Amino acid sequence: MTLLRHLVAILALPFAVVVLVPRWILTAATPGDTRWPAGASLPAAGGRALGGLLFLAGFALFAWCVALFARVGRGTLAPWDPTRRLVVVGPYRHVRNPMITGVAAMLAGEALAFGSRYLAYWLGAFALINHLYFVLVEEPGLAKRFGAGYGEYRAAVPRWVPRLRPWSGASSSDDDTRR
Questions:
Q1: Three-class DSSP labels, 136-157
Q2: Per-residue pLDDT tens over the stretch 105-114
Q3: CB 23 within 8 Å of CB 17
Q4: Using one digit for the tens of pLDDT, what is the confidence trace for 76-131?
Q5: 3-class SS at 61?
Q6: Residue 135: which domain range?
Q7: Is residue 72 domain-resident?
Q8: Total structural domains in the chain?
Q9: pTM of the model
Q10: CA distances from 40 to 29, 43, 47, 52, 110 (A)
Q11: Within 10 Å of residue 141's Cβ, how many Cβ atoms?
């Protein structure tokens, strides 16, 4: 049942953002998009390679965050099935929203790999939508659910730009959750 909860959340949210919407964009917006030509030069090949690496790095970060939500937070990434514990370990010690950063990196990787300015616009829209959602809905909800613990975390860890040194204010009785 737990695996099914995570799969539903992933299919409903990041899969739609990273696979379904970009597929639609790439098929619907072909005439005005600037894709790498078929016999592309070295810069295009470099863009494809860099895009692929960026996508893989974003996917790895996203997967790590989903695993932490399941193991530490005892919930999913979905607003309808949120974590029961505040997750402030791993990449969350550097930035409050690494899962969104991972998804954004996947979108940036797709935009580079396909040479698509419309996918880059989608990345911008995704970033704006998430910023507004986090400021207006997610953060007030977390403050209500987790109280002073979230307030301390929010004051110490930036929303989008990672801090270089990991925040050490996270307290946990299980050292394994720090990874």
A1: HHHHHHHHHHHHHHHHHHHHHC
A2: 999 999 999 8
A3: no
A4: 888 888 889 999 999 999 999 999 999 999 999 999 998 899 999 999 999 999 99
A5: helix
A6: 2-26+44-167
A7: yes
A8: 1
A9: 0.86
A10: 20, 8, 10, 16, 17
A11: 14
